[in-house]
């Protein structure tokens, strides 16, 4: 199949914050079919919905901090329902939730509760992984696998980030197949380098990595097709697993290019293999 391709707008967040209208126009002109949100950049849900209609972009999903869900899940989800999103996704959790103590059961409880609310509202809850869900083990299994075993598949779908699956030590294509039927949206993200202390600084998460590691850029996120990932194999696995969408994401630009230039490089590469 030929997948529809969306852009995670976190990739171009500064542009979106400065001028969402013009950013969406450029995203559409590059050849993207849809967008995934990470905030609304000061706009109302109705304004965002109308901009998506204006440019013919499908608002497929939104990354929604779990803190916002905890504070008021119904009104939070209602915003994205208004926009027209199909999926609401937990994008990142504290690593405290990933350990076999009282915190992990709390994550399971939240995912179950929020999954039920989403379903009642005509939405679908998803979970977007990083690498620490693989390095944290519970009963000899990856924390990510235990999470999916613990929450009904109707309530929680995967949103596998193929970069972090790879960094976590698994083969992305194999892992996508593992969750066949539960993997409607797959994140395409490329990288070079090895796991290092500065990885999360690159995605905007502050840590105590030393300055030398950050300056050396031992690990670098790249436009899709510019790094080490086997994307033809990933797309084949996504097709076999029943995925509906693929989403390009690059948390920081590379090669001295702007975020929008990197987004264009990614979609131009994806067009060559998405046939």
Tell me what you see in this structure.
The protein is an alpha/beta fold and 275 residues long. It has a single domain (5-189, 224-273), classed as Alpha-Beta Barrel (TIM Barrel). Helices cover 44% and strands 17% of the residues. The chain is built from twelve helices and twelve strands. The chain has helices at 13-18, 20-30, 45-55, 66-83, 103-120, 132-135, 143-150, 162-167, 172-178, 211-216, 231-241, 259-273, and strands at residues 5-8, 34-37, 58-63, 87-90, 124-128, 137-138, 141-142, 157-159, 185-188, 190-193, 219-222, 245-248. The protein has an eight-stranded parallel beta sheet with strand order 8-5-4-3-2-1-12-9. Strands 6-7 form a two-stranded antiparallel sheet. A two-stranded antiparallel sheet has the order 10-11. Helix 3 links the parallel strand 2 and strand 3.
Keywords:
275 residues; alpha/beta; TIM Barrel; 8-stranded parallel beta sheet; two-stranded antiparallel sheet; 12 helices; 17% strand
């Amino acid at each position: 199949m030929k997948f529809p391709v969306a852009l995670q707008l976190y990739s171009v967040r500064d542009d979106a914050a400065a001028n969402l209208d013009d950013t969406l126009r450029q995203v559409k002109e590059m050849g993207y079919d849809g967008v995934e949100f990470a905030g609304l950049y000061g706009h109302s849900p109705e304004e965002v919905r109308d901009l998506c209609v204006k440019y013919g972009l499908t608002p497929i999903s939104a990354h929604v901090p779990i803190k916002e869900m905890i504070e008021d899940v119904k009104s939070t989800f209602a915003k994205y329902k208004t926009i027209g999103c199909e999926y609401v996704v937990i994008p990142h959790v504290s690593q405290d939730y990933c350990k076999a103590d009282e915190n992990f059961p709390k994550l399971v409880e939240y995912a179950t509760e929020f999954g039920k609310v989403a379903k009642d509202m005509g939405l679908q809850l998803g979970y977007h992984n990083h690498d620490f869900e693989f390095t944290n083990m519970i009963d000899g299994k990856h924390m990510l696998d235990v999470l999916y075993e613990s929450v009904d598949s109707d309530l929680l779908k995967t949103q596998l980030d193929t970069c972090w699956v790879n960094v976590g030590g698994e083969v992305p294509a194999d892992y996508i197949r593992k969750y066949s039927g539960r993997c409607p949206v797959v994140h395409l993200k490329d990288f070079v380098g090895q796991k290092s202390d500065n990885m999360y600084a690159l995605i905007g998460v502050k840590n105590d990595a030393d300055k030398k590691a950050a300056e050396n850029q031992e690990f670098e996120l790249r436009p899709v097709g510019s790094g080490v990932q086997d994307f033809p194999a990933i797309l084949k696995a996504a097709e076999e697993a029943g995925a509906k969408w693929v989403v390009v994401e690059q948390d920081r630009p590379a090669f001295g290019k702007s975020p929008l230039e990197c987004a264009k490089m990614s979609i131009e590469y994806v067009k060559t293999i998405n046939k």
